[in-house]
TrEMBL record:
Any one GO MF annotation of this record: DNA-binding transcription factor activity
Protein keywords: DNA-binding, Transcription, Transcription regulation
PANTHER family recorded: CRP FAMILY TRANSCRIPTIONAL REGULATORY PROTEIN, HTH-TYPE TRANSCRIPTIONAL REGULATOR ARCR
Domain (Cyclic nucleotide-binding) ranges: 33-128
Protein's name according to its UniProt entry: Crp/Fnr family transcriptional regulator
GO cellular component: cytosol
Entries under InterPro entries matching the protein: cNMP-bd_dom, cNMP-bd_dom_sf, Env_Response_Regulators, HTH_CRP, RmlC-like_jellyroll, WH-like_DNA-bd_sf, WH_DNA-bd_sf
Record flagged with keyword Transcription regulation: yes
Ranges where the HTH crp-type domain occurs: 166-231
Top-level taxon of origin: Bacteria
Organism: Paracoccus hibiscisoli
Amino acid sequence: MRGQITGGEGPRLRAGQSAQDWAATIRRLDPSLIRGISDDGLTAMLSETRIQHLRRPKHILRQGEPADWGYLILAGRIEVSYLDINGNRVLAHLASPGEVLGEVEQFSGRACAASCTTLADTTVMLFDAALILRHVPADLLLRNFAGIFHDRLTRDNRQHSVAMFYGAEDRIRMHLLSMTSLEEPCIRLSQSELAGFAGCSRQTVNKTLSQLRHEGTVEMGRGEICVLNRARLQGTRPGGEQIVLEDGFSAGPIVVPPTEHMPKA
């Protein structure tokens, strides 16, 4: 297999981080792919893999090309995008710490279904199928893959529901909430990218962000949006809905159906 990690190659850890530190980080993140791995298995896996800190955005997987590695996100975010046959680029997902990318391609041997680009200051653990098979029992791995696919089906269903029953401004607010947290209130995201996630025009995003900034709910810088007041962002607005994020909701593209197919009140 291309890019196979061999047992003699130790982890390339960031300054100030030990294998024990990364093991603790992985336990806290509880990534779906290796959920249930034993302490000995995790220690052995870390002794054979590599950990990379990418200070600048970098293409790590390219649509239509083989996946040399799979990536477990330890810190930062990774943008997943899809290019259709007409050259239209769609933001498919914004992956967060604990998520894995490239695992399906690693185990299937197929070319990448989408492209993945790290955002600034992202840390990843590299793996291949052989590494995972050495340290995760087959029955556990099968259950974990089933869980990953179930989570993705659930995410797709939720996003279809959002597209059908939430207005554009509420979709924008929902994505700002899902892409940030109390610990990480800022996200590096352009207004065009936010429009792609929310399934609306850039003009609608500009108008909504301007209003939220005027209220003191968000603050904007160069390519960055910071949520200053999550409670206000979640609150009910005139003519809108209160934003309540379900467990597991994550940023993905909203495909808005034509008006004639929308359910009638």
